[in-house]
Amino acid sequence: MKAFWERFKFHSLFIKIFIVMVISIIAVALSASWTTVRMSERLFMGTFSITNSKVISQIKANFESFHYSIVTATNNTQLSGTIKSFLSEKDSTSQAMLRTYYNMTTQMKRIQSNVDRYEVGIKIMGENGRSYATNTNNLLLTDSELNKQKLTQSTLAEPKRLMYHFYQENNQPTSQESVIVASKALMERTTGDIYGSLYITIQEGDFKSFYESFVSTGNDVAILNKEGQIVSSNRNELLGQQATDLLGYARKIEQEGLDYVNVDFRGKDLIVLADVLPSYDFYIVNLIDKQTALGQMVDTKMVALFCSAIVLVALIVVFLISRRLTKSLTLLSRQMSKITERNFHNYITVTGSFEFQELGHAYNYMLDELNDYVDKLVLTQKEQRNAELAALQHQINPHFLYNTLASVNFLVQQGSKDKAVQTIHALISMLQHALSNVSETISMAEELENLKSYVFINHVRYGERIRVNFFVSPDCTEARVPKLIIQPFIENAFFHAFNRKNEGYIHVLASQDAGMLILEVVDNGDGMENMSPERSLFGPESKRQLFNGIGIKNVHDRIILLYGKEYGITITSNINEGTAIKIRLPLITTQN
Amino acid sequence: MKKTFALLLMCMLILSACGANGGNKNTADTGNAGGNTEAAKEITIWAWDPAFNIAALEVAKAQYTAANPDVKINIVEYAQNDIIQKLNTGLNSGTTKGLPNIVLIEDYRSQGFLQSYKDSFYDLSNSIKGADFADYKSGPTSLDGKQYGIPFDSGVTGLYVRTDYLEQAGYKLSDLQDITWNDYIEIGKKVKDKTGKALITLDPNDLGLIRMMIQSAGSWYLTEDGKTPNIADNAALKEAFEVYKNLTDSNVANVHADWSQFVAALNNGDVASVPTGNWITPSITAAADQSGKWAVAPLPKLAGNDKSVHASNLGGSSWYVMNVDGKETAADFMAKTFGADTEMYQKLLTDIGVIGTFKAAASGEAYGQANEFFGGQKVVSDFAAWTEQIPSVNYGVHTYAIEDILIVEMQNYLNGKAIDKVLSDAQAQAESQIK
């Protein structure tokens, strides 16, 4: 779990980027497709309403030209004296009647030619009971039945108007055809007497042809009369129905000058366009089924499918790219997090994009520099240490010189000339060692010489009650050791180990063990209580050195500085038994 | 570099996908309207006169669909003039769209259609035999030895009279058995005096009366070749015109302008008689309250023409199968009903009053039966007897073209133009038009 969390931590950038990208891609895709669909819908509505208004005006023009023909026919009928006399005169002689009938039929043929373009029938009916129809198929009624019809009644009530009616011939099972009837009362202009009525009939099927070519699935046309009855429609099931709601929409469009209205008509979402046919007193209503019309235009399923496909592809691409981008970063951060391990030597592998390569290079370069500086620092410190040691080494204690020279003086006065010379030689040898370069190493043999000189001088001054023995393994004589490394311990033993005892010995041993040079300074003096090397040897109360500035503490520091922590000094001491000091050094035999 | 390319690719992909959304789905659904592959089992028939032709068709339809339930038969009623106009329009335009499978055509016109549009009609020689039908029908219904039409009703004429009106004027049916048109007018005058009813009703635009008169004398608007107008020197025609004028001058004629008014005049009892084809029987018998008041007398003959007989023909029509999809079904329908079914003819006669021209049917029982509506008169056998006397004439192809001229000239004549001038003018017009 923790490992997983660790992993997750290093991928958090990737995850964040990816999540952001996923959300934004989906948001963009959704909003883009929604906007597109909305826009195309709106555009579609706009263009559709424009084209359909044009269509409506075209339909209107068709209706108007039909109306014009009918008006012409009506006017011709009204102006015809022949027809007037046919419809108004009483029966007379056969010959006169025959003439009247003949002239009337000739006249009617002429009038019929006005409307020849349309499949219409003309019927005239006179107040004298005579009638004539050019097409016996429309208005299958006897004259007396027709007289009782509402359409005749309303025609006669308003004799000056040409009216259009809707009439369903439901009394004939073989022809349940609906017809549109244009009717007009035939009136004597001067007197205002009505002498007959004129009916121009057109079958609804033929009436339909004025607009039928403009309709399609989901794009229907209905003609309403002012009572809201559907007098004609390309949808036959609507025919004759009462559609007051449609009439309401049509009125609203007309009065408010709207382009179209969106309505819910019999459970369908429709766009309704409408116009008024003033000459007919009809409304022409165009019903567009939004679902059908838009379904043809915008395939929402297709859009959704496309969008999902794009989103999917984009997500895969984004996943791969951001994964690739952040992979180097993850690696980098992982490697960088290990900076503290291995003393700044964890160089990182340079991979990934240019930016990350640069970063890696810079990081590695920084590590280089850092290491460089650390090395320099260590070197400087070493040098500083050496300088310090040199300074200490060169501090030959004036008392030592004074005492030694005083001893020599005494020997000369005693006449022991040879001993005086030996002492002077030993002093010279010591000074030579002390004043030469402190950083140099010397062979164990030379160190031994030096120690012997020191011991000789001390014996001259203080007598020979403390004997010093040197046991150097022959294979160690050539081993290299730092200068003056043993002298401080012998000095310490001379001046501090025999305060209560009057005599004793000091053994200096040199041997090698497991590739290490072991030097031991062992005395049988007073020993130390509660021995701990830090306190006794390196403590602040460390006494002033008698020969030069290099003290025991310094020796320890020096060894560690020169050879590392595995080397150094250990001290064991027991009261009245003496002290043993063990110095471990690397076994180096060559000059370097 | 690779990454830049991938990015570019992605952009292109998205752009192209966006573009693809815009302009699809503009393929309009041009529906398969009018594709009538099942037409073979659905046939349309045009005819006129619901009381007669349509009624006969309904009987035939019922017979046929009982045996062939998968066939749908649409019977469409149009006025005869509309049928002629629609046929002409359809045939002229050269398309078969909108044409029916079967159409009823009057014998006067059939040759005009057959000769002009032979290929548009289906040769029925394999389905029926012309010899099975009345001989005078073969002229109008066949062409170049091929039988195109199924002869339907006979146009044999008679003088339908209201015996009640005649009796009021002092006449009996026996008084009408051998009369001339002049006698007929005299009777009419008396009837008018006594009853106030007109003798006859005339349509100024239909000279059927003239046609009956001249055919009874073996004459026609055209000479025997069927092409040359025969008007100016046609004695029968001249006499017929004179009779016509006499009818109007005597003030015994009523006037009508269309079929419904014609039938109404009969049914309302406005006229005392009507000389016309036997196909009017159903229309007359439709007025059941007038049962027993009607009788049929032989047609009067022309006094001044010794060839004239008491029999003539008016109208009569035949079925024609159009050469359109479904013609086999249509031909089968016709052959199995009007071309073979004698039982059906009995039914047509008893139920509707159709006198067919199918010879085998004439021996049937119904043909010899007395008709109660006509006072127990054996109307059908009378008509059958008269049928044999009908003088055969060649109607040619221009009957109605000439009649249109004569209708106008008749008005001129009635208005006082001299008869010889009238006829010679008509002859001149006919010659110039028919060429």
From TrEMBL, chain A:
Bilayer topology: Multi-pass membrane protein
GO molecular function: ATP binding; phosphorelay sensor kinase activity
Top-level taxon of origin: Bacteria
InterPro entries linked to this entry: Bact_2-comp_sensor_kinase, HAMP_dom, HATPase_C_sf, HATPase_dom, Sig_transdc_His_kin_internal
CDD domains: HAMP
Compartments in which it is found: Cell membrane
Ranges for domain HAMP: 323-375
Pfam families assigned to the protein according to its UniProt record, in alphabetical order: HAMP, HATPase_c, His_kinase
Gene3D superfamilies, sorted: 6.10.340.10, Histidine kinase-like ATPase, C-terminal domain (3.30.565.10)
Keywords for this protein: ATP-binding, Cell membrane, Kinase, Membrane, Nucleotide-binding, Phosphoprotein, Transferase, Transmembrane, Transmembrane helix, Two-component regulatory system
GO cellular component, one term: plasma membrane
TM segment ranges: 12-34, 302-321
Protein name: Histidine kinase
Species whose genome carries this gene: Paenibacillus albidus
TrEMBL record, chain B:
Pfam family of the protein (one): SBP_bac_8
Keyword Zinc: no
Xref: SUPFAM superfamilies: Periplasmic binding protein-like II (SSF53850)
Highest taxon of the lineage: Bacteria
InterPro entries noted in UniProt: Bact_solute-bd_prot1 (IPR050490), SBP (IPR006059)
Alphabetical UniProt keywords: Signal
Designated name of the protein: ABC transporter substrate-binding protein
Organism for this UniProt entry: Paenibacillus albidus
